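User: Here's a chain of 47 residues. Predict its fold as tokens.
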Amino acid sequence: MKKYLSMLLVGVTALVAVSAAQAGAIDDAVKRGTLKVGMDPPTCPSK
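Assistant: Prediction complete.
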């Protein structure tokens, strides 16, 4: 049972670390001005 809980904890920790890294990368792209998709809510993307 301890081994199962340890592996579960390691998995959850890794998932949180990866999602935090992705969020940071997106924030950096927005600050640089290279990510502009969906930044203006009133406009819709063209089809």
